[in-house]
Amino acid sequence: MDQKKGRQGKKKQSPEMKEEVQEKEVVKSKGKQQKGAKNAGDNEVKKAEQKIEKQQVVKGEDKKAKQVQQVDSKFELGDGRFSTPTVKLASWNVNGIRAATKREQAVKYLQDTKFDVICLNELKADQAVFDKENLGAQFGKHYFLYLNFCKSKAGYSGVAIASKVKPISVKCDIGISKHDQEGRTLTAEYERFYLVACYVPNAGQKLERLDYRTNEWDVDFQNYLEDLRKKKPTILCGDLNVSHHEIDLANPAGNKKTAGFTQQERDQFTNYLQKGWVDSFRHLHPKEVKYSYFSARNNSRQENKGWRLDYFIINKEATDAIIMSDINTGVEGSDHVPIECEVDLRKL
Hints:
phosphoric diester hydrolase activity, 6-stranded mixed beta sheet, Deoxyribonuclease I, Chain A, manganese, disordered N terminus, metal ion binding, 8 helices, 2 domains, alpha+beta, 348 residues
């Protein structure tokens, strides 16, 4: 290489070489333009796809919101005001609404006008069955009906509230997904109080759900009730699936490892009451032996060998409002019998 020529600049090109270089420059420029156009086109397509996707998401959210609104709007709501100074409440585990309503005595009970509110546990039906068999017609026409069915399994669990007065609000479940699939709670808000209808999970014949029941459900459900009582007096009713003390079942010695009477379940119930809640029946009848559940085997009902599993519980501050709390052993139609309670609204 000529160093002088290299230091001074580029070697002089012939006209032919110049033309070749210009052609290459043009091709290169066109390539860049085409690539840029392609990228711009790709960006436009991508933007369009993102726009469509966003619209689909919005539509999906709108649809979801609409579904939620439909669920919320299925309940007839009102001012939650009772015209009487006291309210008469009943709660009954019917062990299958279809089977129970085939019994004349059960239907008569569900249509009784003396109750302001009747709560039911263990419906064992879904919405389709309930509608198809017109089960709502088995309730008195003076009631507004509110239902929460099991979502995970057909013909399982489920609770209902039949009320003469339209509540201010109605809430299905407790807002925790792992507990909300079986339709176990229904909360009605009235002017002076909350009413919670509940069917507590059974620990199982082999106690396979004992840990879930005591370490998860009981803890979260108790917290839910604590939050309610901060707003207004709260009444819990239903099959709570525990016999608290030995007086609450016919054979305590032989059932210490049976669901409903394990030490873990009893301790959790004790813990709950100690937070400031009152077992209304035991409060009014400290020594009375009376049961709300009788096994279908061994003539349990005839021989009065049962369990007290169903309760009306009220927050301690409202204890003076309890007028009556009892177990109606004269009603047939289920392996449980109804429990009844009367509360003075003026003392809430």
